[in-house]
Design brief:
Helix content is 12%, strand content 41%. The longest helix is centred in the N-terminal third of the chain and has 12 residues. It starts with a helix and ends in a 17-residue tail after the last helix. The N terminus is likely disordered.
Length: 246
């Protein structure tokens, strides 16, 4: 990778920009992308100190157009298994379902699988999602499905960005079982204490794999701490406040 490519990567934010996404795919498919320097997390919280959600509430913060099952949401809207949540342009929502909590960024859509306030699956149709998950009992499984990847969750904090030909995954902490949708044997078990092994998962294989190293982008430790706080937890011991520069 040349200096121009490195500078471009440092400036890259969301995968949503078509020109940047096309350039990223070019680098990935050409085998030129290794573990690049990360850019600072861009996201900002909506203000106020973190506190546990009140009983009977799902939404902690909401901004702009947020739809739950096609209906405009507000602070009193309940979100549960079986629901679809979608955000519009310049819109975001922070919410919880049972012991799991989420920040869904703008122009994003997810389908929540499960019953009542217990989630057993998530399908990320588009956009960007930061999540923290409660530990499950033995035999209880949670899977996340994106365009090019399936992620088995084992009590983790994860961040995803999803495009038709590309999924970005950062295991912020915890353990996930990652596999490529087009080749389930192309897989990896990731254990992370602090954003240790971010990955791109592409639709096209190169050098025998669809899973590539990636930088840390577009999410912050403060956001993860907030998500744990609104469900009454703290981030795990050993999860530090260091910067993302690696």
């Amino acid at each position: 990778m040349n200096l121009d490519d490195e500078l471009w990567l440092k400036e890259t934010g969301s995968l949503a920009d078509p020109a940047r996404r096309a350039r990223l795919m070019q680098l990935l498919c050409g085998g030129a992308l290794g573990l690049a320097a990360s850019n600072p997390a861009y996201a900002r919280l909506f203000g106020g100190s973190a506190r546990r959600l009140k009983d009977g509430r799902s939404i902690y913060r909401i901004k702009g157009e947020v739809l739950v099952n096609g209906q405009r949401a507000n602070r009193k809207t309940r979100i549960r298994g079986g629901d679809t949540v979608r955000t519009g342009n310049k819109s975001r929502v922070i919410f919880a379902v049972g012991g799991d909590s989420f920040i869904l960024r703008d122009d994003s859509e997810i389908e929540i699988g499960g019953q009542d306030f217990f989630i057993d699956s998530l399908r990320i149709l588009a956009g960007r999602l930061l999540s923290v998950f409660a530990k499950r009992d033995p035999g209880q499984r949670l899977s996340m499905t994106a365009s090019t990847a399936t992620i088995g969750i084992r009590g983790s904090g994860v961040y995803l960005e999803v495009e038709p030909e590309l999924t970005y995954l950062c295991t912020c902490y915890g353990q996930v079982a990652l596999s490529a949708n087009d080749d389930p044997e192309d897989s990896e078990l990731i254990t992370s204490t602090s954003h240790d092994q971010p990955r791109y998962i592409t639709r096209q294989a190169q050098q025998g794999t669809r899973i590539r190293e990636a930088p840390v982008i577009n999410h912050s430790n403060d956001e993860l701490e907030l998500l744990e706080a609104i469900v009454g937890r703290r981030t795990p011991a050993g999860f530090g406040k260091e910067s993302y520069e690696k």
